[in-house]
Amino acid sequence: MASTNDLKNGMVLKLEGGQLWSVVEFQHVKPGKGPAFVRTKLKNVLSGKTVDKTFNAGVKVETATVDKRDMQFSYMDGDYFVFMDMETYDQLHIDRKVVGDAAHFLVEGFEATVAQHEGEVLYVELPAAVELTIAETEPGVQGDRSTGGTKPATLETGHQIQVPLFVTTGEKIKVDTRTSDYLGRVSG
Known about the structure:
The protein is mainly beta and 188 residues long. It is 2% helix and 53% strand. The chain has one helix at residues 96-99, and strands spanning 2-3, 12-15, 19-29, 37-44, 50-56, 60-63, 67-77, 80-85, 91-95, 111-117, 120-125, 129-137, 150-155, 160-164, 172-176, 182-185. The strands form 3 sheets. Strands 1-6-2-3-4-5 form a 6-stranded antiparallel beta sheet, with no helix packed on it. Strands 9-8-7-10-11 form a 5-stranded antiparallel beta sheet. Strands 14-13-12-15-16 form a 5-stranded antiparallel beta sheet, with no helix packed on it. The radius of gyration is 21 Å and the shape is globular.
């Protein structure tokens, strides 16, 4: 248990029938009249839905212990992504539904943060940007460069993103894992 006065960003609360909510942002408000309160923005850990919720100051809220570990993606096993704990070398099978959009950017050997609560995997979190190779893209047309246009490209994971016209098949690029945006070429 914790008090609403102890809230921190990233803290996970157990509310409304055991649902887990992560604190995205919070603000202590002390109005001129009436009791102080805490205005929060909470994100449902499983669904990703965000809500605004107000608590009275000093109210007890139940916190959930979320175990976050760095794990390495090893291989696919049917609909399961198999991750290896970097410390214990234990393997963890995670359902594709739980991996979600992170699946678009996972290549064998990539590291990700796996969050668990009481043995249940909540989500897989990737770094903000990853380096991937372009498996296939059409050649850019000479003279198109000045327009700043883009073209579709398929990454080595099979995910399709938009890239600048000058990018070619086989090039390694940096991709934003939250938006699928092209961030630049990787040199060397």
